Structures are given as C-alpha cells and as structure tokens.
Amino acid sequence: MPQRSSTNGNWSFSPYARRKHQRHLAPLPEAIVISAVQQKHTTPTDDDEGVPKVRTTMEAEKQEEFNLQKEFEWVLREEVHQLLKKLKFILIECAHRFPVPLYENEGKKTEKFILSVQPPDQLKAILTLTGDTITQADISFKLSKSPHQIQRTSITQDSPWKLQQVQDAANHLQQAINHIDDVDESYHFKTSDEVMHVVGNILEALQRGRLSLVIPKKKPIDELIKGRNMKSLTPNLSEDLAVSFYLQSHKLIIAVYQLTNIHGTMRFDSCQAEASINWLNEVLFMLSAGLQLCQQLKDKISVFSLYKDFKVGSRASSALSY
Fold it and tell me: What are its GO cellular component terms (predicted)?
C-alpha cells in the first residue's frame, strides 16, 4: 500500500509492501514423511532400540566365538575319539582281508588263478597264490621274433615268487592301526595340533599302504632280467627275456618282456595278462573309506586351526559349564 515519504511528504511505494504473498507448498506424501522419521531413528550407529550397532556387532562376534570354542571343545573331547574308534574298526576289518598274518589274522590264504590273453598261446599262466607268495605256476608264452616258438617255464614250491607289494601294504596298515592304539581312549586332546599330528600319521600310513597296491614300483628292463625272482623260474629263461608278477589295483598281472637289438638300438616288447583278486578289491575299498574318514576330521580341525588362540580351557569358566 502507498506510504508517505518522511522526507518530502510525497507518496511512495515500499518494495516490501509491493511483494506478493508467498504461496504455501503442498504437504509431503505420507510415505516420505514416515521414511524420513524411520531414517532419523535408525542411524548407522544405532539399532531399532537405540543401541549402538558397534556394540551389537561386537556382542555378535563374541557370541560366535563362544559357539565356535564350545564346538571345538566338543570335537576334541568327543568326536575325535568317536572317529578314531570307527576308523580302527574299518582298518581291522581291512586287516582281516589280507592273506598274510596281520592284527590277529592268521593269513596264508590259498587261491588259484588263470591269467591269459587272446590268443591264449601268446601268454598264459596257471598259478597258486598262498598269502603274498606264488608257490606254483605254469607259464607259457610266444616270442614275437619267433612266432612259432612257445617258451615254457614254471615256479615251484622249492623256489616261490614273493609279491612284496602285499607285505608292504600290510606293514603300512599295521602302522596306521598302531597310531590309533597309541591314543588312550581317556586322553583329552588340548589343541588342534595334537589331533592333526595323530591324524596326519594315520593318513600318511594309509596312503602309503594304498599306493603299494595301486602303483607298482617300476624297474628298468635290465634290473628285471637280473632280478632275484627270475631265479625262481625253472627252466631259466634266456638273458633277453624277463617275467614280472605284480599287483595293480585289484588285479594280479603277469608281464613278459623281450629285449631286442634293432640296428644297434636296444628296445623291448611286452605282453601281459591279468586276473581280478576279490580280497584286493575289498582291501582297497576299506583303505579308501579310512582315508575319507581321516580327511573329514582333518578338514574339520583345520577350520578351528585358523583360530590360533583356541585351546581347551581358553573360555571363561561359565562357558565351560554345559
């Protein structure tokens, strides 16, 4: 509205008087208002009850550590011994399958096998296996350089052929059982390192035992020809021939090697025949089951090993009363 000037009495217009009335803003939607209120009361440092999140996170971590420690002590006190007991049962059953004296097993089981290929005159062996020893065998094979010549030789009880792989595997299995027997059932493990040491020893013994049967040791041809077992053959073979018996997985294999000189270069040809042995199949199955049990326990203890401070009695006394 017009106002009179205080200096000259004339009418003038004030800029404040000429300003239009400010328009009121529309009210905010209710959803936005509620969201803003919730955001105000749930800041990054508070939970819904106004408790700082830093404190609740710490409490959750302490509870998680408490639960882990509780489980760790149960594993050391109960589960380790339960697994060792179960493992020993499997390994004793495995020992009873061996055809040699092992862990109250008398051994000396006798079986007969026929190993042959097609055509049968290329290689054939009819043998008797007593324990870890071939006590009798009739072997016939045809040489590649003389197609019409069939060689024959045999093994007799006076000079049997020893399968060292069987005894090696039995020795390793006995070591694994001994490692279990060394742990008293009333012993209380204190740390994961103690358990890992015991399980590691058992695991290594079982692995060596299984490898003894699955992967035979390779020997050069000249070592085979001059080997002690070649003296078991009657009649003896010529110096360019070698016969080998070995185990590979669940099979008994006979291989015949022929050393030849071609234009000054030495090479050898070979042929082999095989037969499946039931007790070997059962032994390998039980060894694998034992290895799996060991690995399961090792993996579980490895998780707790990440917590270097974990040991029996490291929690508060109130936490131990369960």
Answer: RAVE complex
